[in-house]
Structure formats: structure tokens, C-alpha cells
Amino acid sequence: MPKMYVIGNWKMHGSKITNCRLIEGILSKLPILTKVDVAICPPFPYLQQTSDKLFRRPILLGAQDLSCAKEGAYTGEVSGDMLRDLKTRFVLVGHSERRAMHNESDQVVANKFAAALEADLIPVLCVGETLEQREAGHAEQVIAEQVSAVINAVGVEALSKGIIAYEPVWAIGSGKTATPLQAQHIHAFIRGLVREHNEAIGSDLSILYGGSVNADNAATLFGQPDINGGLIGGASLKADSFVSICLAAN
Ligand code: PEP
User: Fold this and answer.
1) I need a surface site. Which of 24, 139, 189, 202 has the fewest CB within 10 A?
2) Which residues does the entry assign to the active site, renumbered to this chain (predicted)?
3) Going along the chain, which residue ranges are E strands?
């Protein structure tokens, strides 16, 4: 059975003061969950602060990106080992904002996935099509290429140590959520693709949905057979909404 996750992606939001309030708000409202692992991914400068606040608490720490390289002359980059040093467990790779704004190719994303595993982090591989690609009927092909690049680079056994997040680019931050059926269709497609390589790995792989998930639509989305939780942007910045989404996954 795939494990359920709810992962908050704070993107480039927050300050020491607002982070403190948000983390305390979430911790005070979140009961012990039995079925879902919860994580939050603050911006790099706040990883230490968040790590300290989450110490011995039931929320795990994630990061939004990492370098392909292990160490060296890579100004501005952050390595997997550095993230691990701060007790980070998860790391997003290939978020659509990084693919679009930082020209991260499928190959670079695959290298980041491998770097995350090497640092003993759980990579969350983000995949998804743009509106143009969907309207042209290319959604499945784009997603197949994004997933296959990682399988070709690291192998399907290594893929099984990570998580996939399906995030249609047109649904991110737009308020336009994929319908539960649209999302389920792509999730089943991704699972089928992985099953072609290895039946058991495909069946057990956690595939999260991301794209304007909120407290009102989370339960219906997470009720789909191949949706195993969510990657949450905007709604993870409000304690009440984030906690409701976590409860919907449990
Ligand atoms: C995201 O950026 O990963 C995301 C899903 O954002 P939002 O929930 O705001 O659409």
C-alpha cells in the first residue's frame, strides 16, 4: 500500500517571525496522525529555525531544491549533505517553477533525484504538464518523459525510494484545481508506467497531487484510488487550512 503524505511548500514566503507563528499554529492544531506523514519545506535560510522548532515534533522537515553536486565551487548552491546535516528528510526536485524559471531539464532533475538519494534524503519528484501541452493532447507524453528520465538515470528500485508529485502547471497557484477525475487519470497513468518496470514498486509508490489543493477540495482529491496525499503551496501558509488538509489525508 502506498504511504500517505502531506507536504507543504512555502516557496519564497515568510520571515523568522511569521514562520514562528505558522509552525506554532500548525503544531497546536495538528493531532497525532496515524496514516499520514506531514512535512514542511521552508526557504533555505529558515531550515535551521524550522528544524529547531520541529525537534521531537510530529512534522518532518523538507527542502525545496538541492544541488546535483556533492560539494565544491558551486556558488549559491546547497548540497544534499548540508540539508541532511539540518535534519531534512525530504527534498523537492523538478518543481515546475524551477523547471520553468531555472531551465532545469529532465536530465538535471534526474541528477538531483540521484543526489538526494546519495545524501539519504527522500526526493519528491515533481512532474506535470502546462496548459498548452494538455490542450495539445500531450499531457501523458510529457509526464512519461519526466518520469522515464529518472528511471533511466537511477533505475526503478531507486525511484521507489522517492515520491512522485503530479502537479499540473496550470493548476499551481492559479486556484484552478484539476478535477478529481483528471488527477486520478494521470495518477493511474504514472502508476501504470512504473508498474511496467516493476509491478510491486508501481503498486507501492506514493503519488501526491499538487495544484490549488485547499481545505474544501482535499478530501475528494485524496479519496481517489491513486492519489496518496498532496503537495501544498498557498494553503500551507495558513495553519488552519494546512491542518484541515492533513486531516483530510488521514
Ligand atoms: C506547489 O507549488 O507545489 C503548489 C502545489 O502550489 P499551490 O498549492 O499554491 O497551487
Assistant:
1) 24
2) 95 (electrophile), 167 (proton acceptor)
3) 4-9, 36-41, 60-63, 90-93, 122-127, 163-166, 207-210, 229-232
Q: How far apart are CA 213 and CA 223, in angstroms?
A: 13
pTM comes to 0.97
pLDDT at 174: 87
**Grid cell locating 215:** 481545505
CA separation for the pair 59, 61 (Å, rounded): 7
206 burial (CB, 10 Å; 0-12 / 13-18 / 19+) is buried
Decide if the complex's ipTM is over 0.85. yes
Other C-beta atoms closer than 10 Å to the C-beta of 222 total 22
CA atoms within 13 A on the CB side of 139: 20
Name the grid cell of 146. 519526466
Q: What is the number of the ligand 1 atom nearest to the C-alpha of 9?
A: 3
Residue 37 Cα distances to 3, 76, 143, 151, 212, angstroms:
8, 30, 25, 25, 20
Which residue's C-alpha comes closest to atom 2 of ligand 1? 233
Please state whether beta strands 4-9 and 36-41 pair in parallel, antiparallel, or not at all (unpaired). parallel
Question: pLDDT grade, residue 175 (50/70/90)?
Answer: confident
Residues 196 and 157 sit within 8 Å (Cβ to Cβ): no
CATH of domain 4-52+79-249: 3.20.20.70
Q: Is the CB of 68 under 6 A from ligand 1?
A: no
Ligand 1 close to Cβ of residue 231 (< 6 A): yes
**Nearest atom within ligand 1 for CA of residue 174:** 10
The domain locations on the chain are: 4-52+79-249
Rounded distance, CA 10 to CA 130, Å? 21
